[in-house]
Write a structure and sequence with these properties.
The chain is of the alpha+beta class. It has a single domain, classed as Roll (Nuclear Transport Factor 2, Chain: A). Strands 2-1-6-5-4-3 form a six-stranded mixed sheet. The longest helix is centred in the N-terminal third of the chain and has 19 residues. The chain is globular and about 50 Å long. The chain starts with 36 loop residues before the first helix and ends in a 15-residue tail after the last strand. About 8% of the residues have low confidence.
Length: 195
Amino acid sequence: MAKKPSRPRGAKSRTRTTKRPRARRAMPARPAHAAHGDSQRAVEQFLYWQAEILDERRWDEWLALFTADGRYWMPANEEQTTGDGVPNIFYEDLDLMKVRIGRLGHPRAWSQQPPNRTSHIVSNVVIEREDAKTGDVVVRSKFHVAEFRLDVLRHFLGRYRHHLRRTPSGYKIALQRVDLVNAEGPYEYVLQYWL
């Protein structure tokens, strides 16, 4: 029987390290009831309109979709339950969004010379909760954003969760959470805009 080769004295054993599997996100709860057809259609149209505004870089109109205390939140990982006091990709209120818009539109913004072009696709829109009294809704959906700039095409995919408030002029965004499927992916340059 062949003898195993022995390690030199003091040498560390070479044990294989395995990556810890990424924690699986709990499946979203199935809606307790089918959303009223009018609410479902209105929410879908709102999300499609938001996507169109972003693709056309109509930033002021996009800001107007948010409530006065609205937030845009892109956590660093999908297990996050708050944006306060922890690293995020984005965690912006209206004031920070206005600052970003000013940077994107500045004539010396090298990251937008030439400007990027995007195409948003929103699908799988599900109303999770609807407040019968206020008409406020919590909605989840899926997205795919393609960005083209300097002959490079990048893809961003993931889940939206919108907390929408019903107002006399239609829905407004109280919170938009964006969970990227590829949040940990390497990027040649950072995100300059909202997905």
